[in-house]
Design brief:
475 residues; alpha+beta; Arc Repressor Mutant, subunit A; 3 domains; eight-stranded mixed sheet; 17 helices; elongated
């Protein structure tokens, strides 16, 4: 056990999925030709005036509602002054003193233990552009400049990398279920800055924190935090903490699994915040507040409903509500009147277990209707569970297909005809008369032998029907 306690606070930047940018009418589409979605406002040209996008406010209200937060009816925009090549104005429009979303919280679960993580604030701001470094050249794509962001700042309540990842996954699912962001980490729509420090156990003092910037994968976030904690503990134990651990911003080197110094960490005073003179204070009237607060069912609510109404195990309900796609797939199957527990097994264990890296529920070609039909054919006795797994293998390989056609072409249809099954039973019992006598004299374990022989003789009879008719004959 370590003699140190880890202190982690996270700042998450969520790119909101509005059709246009936060302060202008340029499109926010990803992947467009470089510098094609720009205008005088997002280029920071003199005299260009920003106008706030109402949809950004609605999405911020929705998030605040989902985390049980205080939503400020009045908030203001501020200028955060610093120069970067990808920020043409040389300042960022953000919120400082009065953000739109105040204190809230979310609940996480790690190793079966639940914990509340406080959220300090969530504020609206604009994104910067993107630097592209190629060979001896540096290029700038300003399509992303002025794209709306919601920056979500947590309390320093996390004590391990596992808790940090659980918090981020929960946050990721919330914004996806709300429909306010695609939260695509590869495209930078959901990225995180981690503030990490350590202290001796039992010490309540907060020591020097280090910020790890622009993490956009759960795996890398975990590795970055773990490396940084180890680096700080090593410095403390070697007596070099004060000289080696300074308040700074570091980047995570994914190739070598280490953090590297980027620059000294700025404080709020360094940004010289002041109210933006070009934007009026934000006032949320009751109509807009109600529009924003009208949110869909959230992951925690879904999980409770799955457990209490559908009788699903808590662990399965947890899995289903971590992913919007998984939850939607599951509920589409339920609409086709499939037993919920069968849906869980065939969706989370059988189908997902066959999806290799790069293949997802959205790309595998298997729809809720296809998987539901497969389960129906088992329930109808037309195929066995073993045969259904063989069919699913083919469906995954060829990205979809017709269940009934595959049953016929693969020769997997179960025999349900009673006369055929009875004929097979008669043949088996006549060929094994000695074992029949043993069974009738109390050797009950032979029943399994008879079932196996009848299944073989009938070449794939319905096991349930075989059991029923065999018991009648033997009695």
């Amino acid at each position: 056990m370590s003699a140190f306690e880890t202190i982690i606070g996270l700042e998450v930047h969520v790119q909101l999925n509005t059709k246009t940018k936060i302060f202008c009418s340029c499109a926010t589409s990803f992947g467009a030709e470089a510098n094609s979605n720009v205008c005088p406002v997002c280029l920071g040209l003199p005299g260009a005036l920003p106008v706030l996008n109402k949809e950004v406010v609605k999405k911020a209200i929705a998030f605040g509602t989902a985390i049980n937060a205080q939503i400020n009816q009045n908030s203001i925009f501020a200028r955060k002054n610093y120069f970067y090549p990808d920020l043409p104005k040389a300042y960022q429009i953000s919120q400082f003193e009065i953000p739109i979303v105040g204190r809230g919280n979310i609940e996480i679960e790690v190793n079966g233990e639940k914990k509340i993580i406080g959220i300090t604030r969530a504020h609206m701001e604009e994104d910067a552009g993107k630097n592209i470094h190629e060979m001896n050249y540096s290029k700038i794509d300003l399509n992303r400049a002025c794209t709306p962001l919601l920056e979500i700042v947590s309390e320093p309540d996390m004590r391990s990398s596992d808790e940090a990842v659980a918090y981020l996954k929960k946050l990721h699912s919330i914004v996806r279920f709300l429909g306010i962001s695609d939260a695509n980490m590869q495209e930078g729509s959901f990225r995180c800055d981690a503030n990490v420090s350590i202290r001796p156990k039992g010490d309540n003092k907060l020591y020097t924190r280090v910020e790890i910037k622009n993490l956009n994968s759960f795996k890398f976030i975990q590795k970055a935090i773990e490396y940084e904690v180890e680096r700080q503990i090593d410095a403390w134990e070697s007596g070099k903490y004060d000289s080696q651990i300074i308040q700074e911003t570091r980047l995570f080197d994914t190739n070598n699994g280490i953090t590297r110094s980027m620059r000294g960490k700025e404080e709020a005073a360094d940004y010289r915040y002041f109210p933006d003179p070009d934007l009026l204070p934000v006032f949320i009237d009751e109509e807009l507040m109600q529009e924003g607060r009208d949110i869909p069912e959230m992951p925690d609510e879904k999980r409770t409903r799955y457990i209490q109404t559908l009788g699903i195990k808590e662990s399965d309900a947890m899995v289903l509500t971590l992913s919007l796609e998984l939850s939607q797939f599951f509920e589409s199957m339920l609409e086709l009147n499939i037993n919920p527990k069968s849906c869980v097994t065939w969706l989370t264990t059988e189908l997902q277990g066959r999806l290799k890296e790069g293949n997802t529920l959205l790309t595998c070609g298997i729809t809720p209707h296809i998987l539901a039909t497969l389960i129906k054919r088992i329930e109808e006795g037309k195929i066995s569970g073993k045969s259904a797994k063989e069919i699913l293998d083919v469906l995954v390989e060829q990205k979809g297909g017709d269940i009934d056609s595959l049953i016929q072409s693969m020769g997997l249809a179960q025999v349900n005809d009673e006369s055929t099954i009875l004929r097979a039973i008669e043949n088996v019992l006549q060929a094994n008369s000695d074992k029949v006598n043993e069974y009738k004299n109390g050797k009950d374990k032979l029943f399994g032998f008879f079932v196996g022989q009848v299944m073989k003789e009938s070449k794939g009879a319905n096991p349930a029907r075989v059991n029923e008719l065999l018991k009648e004959k033997l009695s």
